[in-house]
Amino acid sequence: MKTVNDMNLYPIIKGQIAKGMRTNFFLSEEELMEYIQNGMCQQLSFADGTYLFLEDNEKIRFFYCLEKEGSINPLPEVAKPIILEEVHLATKEKTPSEADWMSVGFVPYLVRKRLRFLQKNWQPEECQIEFATIADTTTIMELMSESFEPYTSALPSVLELERDILAKRVLVAKDEDNLLGFLRFGLEKKNTVLWQIAVAKEGRGQGVGGRLVQDWMFANQESRQFLLWVRTDNPSALKMYENLGFQSDGRLATVMIKNEKTGAHIGTPL
In sequence order, which residues have a C-beta less than 8 Å from that of residue 95 and are 6 or more positions away? Predict the structure, then answer.
């Protein structure tokens, strides 16, 4: 592998994709440039394609571009877990297949499916919304670390969380001063996306998660769609969202992992 310092890499990759190469690449140009500028992007090129390895604190994110009829290439051995994430339609066969990636050392890790709710189908009810304050930052970060697996949950840094709190993109549920749960969301064009939601142990079984979702929808009444990803091995969360009217839009995000050595806890967040 070689460390990448070519700032033209993004248009090169997009050009390969435009020619019909198979890929799981979904980063924006700004995201990729940040990895390159920090010396955290490595590239491996071979006859049938290109691999990109983007190093984070706890993992290496893996992206590929492969010729249509080309075969996958073995991956180098590294100290950190390598994470492969692919978004696809449930009704469409993946290529390369899961078996192809298992042949080079990956194993299945988790699967998420995307749910959506159309604003036109919603009759809003008045909610008493409570937004997080900067004083809630530490408690929310602690609940995040307890509730989510470390590799694909896209957890924010403290600074990112504080930015979202100030922008009123973090909702909380409290019992007096005790945090029972939180919900963090973002905006994408005309849609709103639920990024993380978690309920503390003392808040479970009280409908806290459902109330937070309703608060999120009420706070974003002008959005065209309400979108979220949920793990397929979390039946309680699936049931909650379905009871609120969310339905699958047919998209799955499958995640595989290679060389997991940290023994990190794999949770089942909402």
Answer: 22
Q: Give, for all 270 residues of the chain, the pLDDT tens digit.
A: 788 888 889 999 999 999 999 999 999 999 999 999 999 999 999 999 999 999 988 899 999 999 988 889 999 888 899 999 999 998 888 889 999 999 999 999 999 999 999 988 777 777 889 999 999 999 999 999 999 998 888 899 999 999 999 999 999 999 988 999 999 999 998 999 999 999 999 988 899 999 999 999 999 988 999 999 999 999 999 999 999 999 999 999 999 999 855 433 333 334
Q: What is the CATH T-level fold of the domain 118-256, as seen in this structure? A: Aminopeptidase (3.40.630)
- Domain ranges, ordered by start, for the chain: 2-80, 118-256
Q: Whole-model pTM?
A: 0.87
Helix locations, the chain, DSSP H = 9-18, 29-37, 98-102, 137-147, 158-166, 208-219, 235-243
